[in-house]
## 1
Amino acid sequence: MSEAIFQTPGPLANGWRLDHSYSRLPDLLHKPWRLSPVQSPSLVLFNRPLALSLGLDADALDTADSAAVFAGNTLPPGALPLAQAYAGHQFGGFTNLGDGRALLLGEHITPAGQRLDIQLKGSGATPFSRGGDGRAALGPMLREHIISEAMHALGIPTTRSLAVAATGEPVYRRETLQGAVLTRVAASHIRIGTFEFLSAHEDKQALAALVNYTLERHFPDRIGAESPALELLRCAMERQASLVARWLNVGFVHGVMNTDNAALSGETIDYGPCAFIDRYAPDTTFSSIDRGRRYAYANQPPIAQWNIARLAEALFPLLHPEEARGLELANGVIEGFQDEFKRHWLSGMRSKLGLFNEEQGDETLSKDLLNALEESGADFTNAFQSLSSEAALQSSPFGDGALATWHADWSARRSRQPQTHAECLQLMRKHNPRVIPRNHMVEAALASASAGDLAPTHRLLAALSDPYNAEAPREIAYLEPAPSGSAPYKTFCGT
Ligand code: AMP
Ligand code: MG
């Protein structure tokens, strides 16, 4: 199958090399669709480093002319736009969805041979729009650009943003906003909801084809298992467990972990209501519509596991010829999530604490710190920063109280490993970001951008591009939580 389905075209103008393996999958999964040209496209942001790594001609594309491509007025050479069909559990309830405001232009083949989806988001209505306008507003698209690029710089698997283009047309939400299109680059857009969609259609053949396709595209070293569906379930579980562990280690709250926003590739996808925590509070929820705190910071691991259970249900007919055995196997994978998550999370915490070897008590030591941080109301990111200095390795930077007690335990723990302070600090600095996208700074940049001033956005992007570099000079504003007394930060899904 692989040879026919995955092809490698030669490069066309500006370095574009688009293939269309997804369109060779069963028809149920995609609808060929068209661009919906907009009035006056203009390029707002262009990601030159990403363009270069994709083998695109950054000079040729970073021009006013190419706004027509990034706003969806003209197609890049070799593009064959389609809208993808999928379903998903949104806040626990099953719904049929699909690309209601996105178009897949094709899969770009990079010089290194990587296959990456190029998708326009906000490019107009499709057969899956369900009454929506198919459009996106400038603020949320800039927000996706900023936060996904920050995640990438933090070393967390994520979709990327190649460009944001303004449409010159209004979009009507609670207020009238400027329209924009984001060009998203992703390992793929195959979601748990894509499998749920085929399962709802009871199309076992298509389901099997998508299983094989996903294994070939994302897990080529896992092909050949007795049950490809079971192997894929395992791969998805492992990637989600590792991803969510990384989120927790940097204080990220995704905010809308519906199964349609869970990518099989293991990339973070769909930056709607996401945000980073300031002070450590496990129940932190930013999304204004998440009243039940379903997607709160600390609820992300059990939700990812719940999502894996939905994938298991969708794949169930393919797991094993005997139902009872299939159920047993599925449960084994689902239950394995907890250990897998904990392994990644604890390994992340050890690195954040400068610990090289493993000891039984490390989980307790980590949780004791988090409890003390919660109690003291300390800023999560900056607490780890204040631990990451020669002085802090010697004596507690926290005065007395629970944090000081914890510091004594930590010092004792460190004394039982052979590494020097310098080695310890090096490890900590690699895992404790100095800069994260502080909510108030992101909001300030977006407010300026919507008034036509992109300078704060560029400054913020520059600060976020090198988050672990302790030596880089920074504006103090990027390093501080929102001023005390600020209202709790709220995000809105109205993207
Ligand atoms: P999201 O919240 O971005 O994950 O989107 C959930 C679903 O709603 C997806 O199927 C989107 O394509 C669809 N959707 C979101 N916004 C719009 C819009 N403005 N017009 C049409 N469909 C939309
Ligand atoms: Mg989505």
## 2
Amino acid sequence: MRPWRDHLPDPAAYVPDREGTLLRAWARRVAAAPGRPLWHEGGRWWSAGEFAEATGRAAGRYRAAGLAPGDRVLWSTATSVDALVAHVGALRAGLVVVPANTAYGARELSHIVEDVRPAAAVLERDEQREWVRQVAHAPHVVAGPGLDLPDGDPGPLDTAGPGDPALVCYTSGTTGAPKGAVLTHGNLLANSEALRVAWRWTADDRLVHCLPLFHAHGLAVAAYGTLLVGGSAVLLPEFDPAAVVDAARRQQASLFFGVPTMYHRLVTSGAAADLRGLRLCVSGSAPLRADLHRAASRALGSGVLERFGMTETLMNTSNPLDGERRPGTVGFPLPGVEVTLDPSGEILVRGPNVFAGYWERPGADAGAFRAAADGGGRWFATGDLGADDDGYLVLRGRARELIISGGFNVYPTEVEDVLARHPAVAEVAVTGTPDDEWGEVVTAWVVCEGPVPDVGELRAFCRDELAPFKQPRLVRRVDVLPRNALGKVIRSELR
Ligand code: MLC
């Protein structure tokens, strides 16, 4: 892999600040230019100073509610300024934010609450607030994104150090329940700094932000990056091609970040051609097929820049801003990040972006990290397989089973466990089927003695247990599931 120093026009521009935090770097930006626009929502701009004040007030509300540094805050909200105020306010108070998908149902949310034992929960939907109140470790503070709590003295702000936890982000392995990846304040800064340098992201940039905030892409890449560089972003509550074009034009945006499904919709709707004014369009969270890459780049008038990251490491590699943005590849290691391949081809990563470990799961840590032969710190084994194509990293599938649908991760075993309980299903295996729009769609291969339940029935059956994006979209009947000598289903033979 081409090391990052070789492809940056000015490697000296990357001066890692290992003592700092994202919050402190941002506080310096605000102090220097409090009047600069930061977030646009509902027809008006929030200035950086206004947002800083609101987040300080939010920190005071958490403190008044009895929360202390290190306490966890479950946070599951739609993309909005309120959500960001509640989020950044919690970080400023030294609280640890636990993002969760707003599509999660009672079972998915309860697991997180039981595991991380949050002191507070900031939740978008009324029913989510009901569910978490019923869990054994129910948080004692439950609020909506507007943080409708009494005001209080925030005390000292931004005191968390680089090694202190900032986020616990839940992600599944192939087996077992989702586990929390602990990301530190130092990880958040390192990630944003690397992107600032690699994409030459400046205070003059303006992003169209239509990603969910509860994942690394919308949060750590889009929102934190905007804060770090002192730039601005137009927040859209959902992805709609016409709304993206409208926001980009009216607010003279320069950046768009999306998942491949969004690029597919921008191309097929014809909206991509109206985004030619943008300086940079970045794709991530799932592989961008080379043909879609080319079609989108043609329509947008400049090459889509594909990059590669994951919850545990935030961003790892990126195609170059200058030079060839090669379709079908995810480019080179980002500043400060080292990437290598083990003998089986699994991608290993180390650097200041790599998380501290899984929340209260030393066993999972032992499996995820590998000692380094050079004594230079441990490597994180990503579970993705890669190859080196003339210095560019190419993703070659996954060492562990995972379906990526529209940029959301779906773990086959979780879906299989639920479907197997359907009375008509004797056996089931779940795989991802390639799909133009979604990248992959969840497919259930079922063995049934009687009639096969149709997809509508299976989705209805899962409704209380699985968020809609995990539910099958295709159902295929098979007489038997292919198994190896140990009886394990060979999913790769089901495609
Ligand atoms: C929504 N649906 C999905 C889905 N998203 N089904 C499968 N996969 C998905 N990703 C469901 C809806 O619940 C609905 O179900 C039906 O599909 C139709 O919905 P839609 O209106 O067409 O979808 P939409 O709401 O427009 O959502 C599509 C999307 C969204 C692409 C905008 O999926 C999205 O925002 N994806 C981004 C994911 C993301 O940010 N990932 C980052 C992970 S971080 P029903 O049953 O109601 O009909 C990470 C690290 C990194 O991976 O490197 O970035």
